[in-house]
Design brief:
The chain is α/β, with parallel strands linked by helices and 594 residues long. Helices cover 65% and strands 10% of the residues. It folds into two domains: 314 residues, Up-down Bundle (ABC transporter transmembrane region fold); 240 residues, Rossmann fold (3-Layer(aba) Sandwich). The chain has 22 helices and twelve strands.
Length: 594
C-alpha cells in the first residue's frame, strides 16, 4: 500500500515530447464534423475584433465633435457607438456558445477515445500503472483540455487578434505617437514567455504530485477494510499528508510565479499611459493632434494591455492543457492489443491446449515465472494444476488468454499457435473464474450478460442449474441490485454468479483459477455442484488446492518455482513419493479441520 511504485514511470511520462498539436490531429475526425461551427467561430472572431477597433475611434470622433460644437456629429458618434456596442454584445454571445459547444463535443469525443483505448491496453500496462493515475488522465487532464477548447483557446485567439489589430490601428492613426507608446510593448511579450517557461515547469510538478495523490487514494480506498483491520489508519494518514504537502508546495510555487507576472504588465501599462499623457498632451497643446486622437489612443491602450492580462491568465491555462495533452498523448501512444489480426479457427481433431517448452518472465522480475513448461490438454479432458504459492499456476491462465506473450516456446490452442488467433475469438472460447470474483455495479442481469443479449428464460435456466436462483429470487431476481465489486453478496454467492455467467456464455474451455479456494461453508455443497455442472463435457484447467476438485480431474500437474515437476493421474501421483503426496497429506489434515 505504498503508492510510490509508479513514480519513475510518471516522471518519464511527464517529460514526454507529445505535443498539443499531435493530440489535435487525433481529434481531426471530430474537427471535420464541426468544421462549419469552427469556421463560424473564426468569422465571428474577425468581426468582433473589427468592432473592438472601431469603438475607440468613435469615442475619439465624439470628443472632437464636442470640442468643435458639432451637435449632429456628436449624436451620430453616440449612435454609432451604441450600435457597435449592441452588435458586439450579440456577436460575443453567439461566439461564446459556438466555441464552447464545439469544445464540449470535442472533449466528449476525446474522453470516449481515451477510455476506448484504455480498455484495449494489454494487462501488462496496468501492472505498472495504478488506477488512480489513469483516473487523473480521463477526468482531470481531459477537463483541463476541455477548459482550453471551450473557453481559453477562443479568448486566446481573440486577444491576439485584438492586439495585432490595435497595433495596426495605432500606427495608422498616428505613426509617431503609436511608435512611442509601443516601444515598451515587446517587453510584455518577453515577460509572458519568460514566466510562461517557469509556469510550465511548475505545472509539470503539480500534475506529477496530483498523479501520486490519486494513485494513493485509489489504492488505499480500495484497501480500506485491510487498513482498518490492521489499525494502519494513522500511518496511512501521515503518508497521505506528506503527499498532499508536496502537491501543496508545488501549487504554491506555480502561484508565486504567476503572481509576479501581473505587476510587470501593470508597470508597462503605466509607462504606456504616461507616454500618452505626456507626449500626447504636449502635441495637443501645440496643435499637432486633436484631443480626440488622445482619447482614441486611451481606448487602444486599454485594448492593448487588457488582452495582455487575459493572455497571462489564458496562457496559464494553455500551459496546463499542454501538460495534460502530453500525458493523454502518452496513453494514446501506448500500443493496445491487436483485435484485428488472426484468423485461426478451432480444429476439432487437435488437442485443446498445448504448452511446448514455454518460458515466461514478468517484466518486473528477474527469475522466470514458468520455465520450460510442456503439457497438453485433450478435448473434453480436465487437468488440475497444483503447487505452492508462487509456483506459476496463475501465470499459465494469463498466457492462455494472451494477456502476456511468452519469451520462449509456443502455446497451441485447438491446433494453432496463439499468435494466429484473434484475441476476441480466443477469449470467447475460454471462460475463466478467479478466486476473487469482481462484479460491476448494476443489475444481476447486466452482470450475467456483460453487454450481450440473452433471453430471460435462458438466464433463469442457467441460474437454476448453478443453484444461484434460490439466493436471488427474493432479492429482485434478474433485476437485483449489485453493488460495485459485488459487496452486497457473499464470496460464495459471487462465485455462483461467476459460474452462472460461464454457463450463459457456454465457452469451449473453462479455467478455474483458485475459484473454490475461499468456499463459503454455507454454500460449499451448492458451489461444488455448480462446478460439476460447468465442467461437465468441457475441456477444463483447474488451478485448485481442494482435494474434492482435484480428484474429479483426469490428470494432475504439480508445479514448484516455475517448473513442472510431476504429472499423472490422481491415483498415480498419490501413490508416488514426492511433492504431491506431501501436498495431499497437508490438505487432507486441513480439510478435516472443522
Amino acid at each position: 500500500m505504498g503508492g510510490d511504485g509508479s513514480d519513475s514511470v510518471i516522471e518519464a511520462e511527464t517529460h514526454s515530447t507529445v505535443s498539443l498539436i499531435r493530440l489535435t490531429k487525433r481529434l481531426a475526425p471530430s474537427l471535420q464534423q464541426h468544421r462549419w461551427a469552427l469556421g463560424l467561430g473564426v468569422i465571428l472572431i474577425l468581426v468582433t475584433t473589427g468592432l473592438e477597433i472601431l469603438l475607440p475611434l468613435w469615442v475619439g470622433y465624439g470628443v472632437d465633435f464636442a470640442v468643435q460644437g458639432n451637435r449632429a456629429g456628436l449624436v451620430r458618434a453616440a449612435q454609432m457607438f451604441l450600435i457597435i456596442i449592441c452588435s458586439k454584445a450579440l456577436l460575443d454571445s453567439i461566439l461564446a456558445y459556438t466555441i464552447q459547444s464545439t469544445g464540449q463535443r470535442l472533449m466528449h469525443a476525446l474522453r470516449g477515445q481515451v477510455f476506448e483505448h484504455i480498455v484495449r491496453l494489454p494487462v501488462a500496462y496496468f501492472d505498472k500503472n495504478p488506477t488512480g493515475r489513469l483516473l487523473t488522465r480521463v477526468m482531470n487532464d481531459i477537463k483541463s483540455l476541455g477548459e482550453l477548447f471551450t473557453a481559453s483557446l477562443s479568448v486566446l485567439i481573440l486577444d491576439v487578434a485584438v492586439i495585432l489589430a490595435t497595433i495596426v490601428a495605432m500606427l495608422g492613426l498616428d505613426v509617431r505617437l503609436g511608435g512611442a507608446i509601443l516601444i515598451t510593448f515587446p517587453i510584455v511579450g518577453w515577460v509572458v514567455v519568460h514566466f510562461g517557461e517557469l509556469l510550465n515547469e511548475g505545472y509539470r510538478k503539480v500534475r506529477l504530485e496530483l498523479s501520486r495523490m490519486n494513485a494513493f487514494l485509489g489504492e488505499n480506498i480500495a484497501a480500506i477494510a485491510t487498513i482498518q483491520r490492521l489499525g494502519a489508519e494513522k500511518e496511512r494518514d501521515e503518508r497521505f499528508g506528506s503527499i498532499v504537502n508536496l502537491h501543496f508546495g508545488a501549487s504554491m510555487e506555480s502561484l508565486m510565479v504567476f503572481a509576479k507576472v501581473q505587476p510587470y504588465a501593470n508597470i508597462l501599462n503605466g509607462v504606456a499611459m504616461a507616454t500618452l499623457i505626456g507626449l500626447g498632451g504636449y502635441w495637443v497643446v501645440h496643435g499637432r493632434i486633436t484631443l480626440g486622437v488622445v482619447v482614441t489612443f486611451l481606448g487602444y491602450i486599454r485594448n492593448l494591455f487588457q488582452p495582455v492580462r487575459d493572455l497571462v491568465e489564458k496562457y496559464n491555462n494553455f500551459l496546463s492543457a499542454r501538460v495534460s495533452a502530453e500525458r493523454i498523448g502518452v496513453i494514446l501512444d501506448e500500443p493496445g492489443e491487436d483485435y484485428r489480426t488472426g484468423g485461426a479457427s478451432r480444429d476439432p481433431a487437435a488437442e485443446a491446449v498445448s504448452f511446448r517448452n514455454v518460458t515466461f518472465t514478468y517484466p518486473s522480475r528477474h527469475a522466470p515465472a514458468i520455465d520450460r513448461i510442456s503439457f497438453s490438454v485433450g478435448a473434453g479432458q480436465s487437468v488440475a494444476v497444483v503447487g505452492p504459492t508462487g509456483s506459476g499456476k496463475s501465470t499459465l491462465v494469463r498466457l492462455i488468454l494472451k494477456f502476456y506473450e511468452p519469451q520462449d516456446g509456443e502455446i497451441l490452442f485447438w491446433g494453432h499457435p496463439l499468435k494466429d488467433w484473434n484475441r476476441n475469438d480466443l477469449r470467447s472460447l475460454v471462460g475463466v473464474v478467479h478466486q476473487e470474483v469482481y462484479l460491476v455495479e448494476g443489475t444481476l442481469r447486466e452482470n450475467l450478460c456483460l453487454g450481450q443479449r440473452f433471453d430471460d428464460e435462458y438466464l433463469l435456466k442457467c441460474a437454476r442449474t448453478c443453484q444461484l436462483w434460490e439466493f436471488v429470487k427474493e432479492r429482485g431476481g434478474l433485476e437485483m441490485k449489485v453493488y460495485e465489486g459485488g459487496t452486497n453478496l457473499s464470496v460464495g454467492e459471487r462465485q455462483l454468479v461467476a459460474f452462472t455467467r460461464i454457463l450463459v456464455f457456454n465457452p469451449e474451455v473453462v479455467v478455474l483459477d483458485e475459484a473454490t479456494a475461499s468456499l463459503d461453508r454455507r454454500l460449499e455443497g451448492r458451489l461444488m455442484s455448480a462446478v460439476a455442472v460447468v465442467l461437465k463435457g468441457r475441456t477444463s484447467i483447474v488451478v485448485a488446492h481442494r482435494l474434492s476438485t482435484i480428484q474429479s480431474c483426469d490428470h494432475v500437474l504439480v508445479m514448484d518455482r516455475g517448473h513442472l515437476i510431476q504429472a499423472g493421474t490422481y491415483r498415480e501421483l498419490a501413490a508416488r513419493p514426492g511433492l504431491f503426496q506431501e501436498y495431499l497429506q497437508f490438505h487432507s489434515a486441513e480439510e478435516a479441520m472443522p
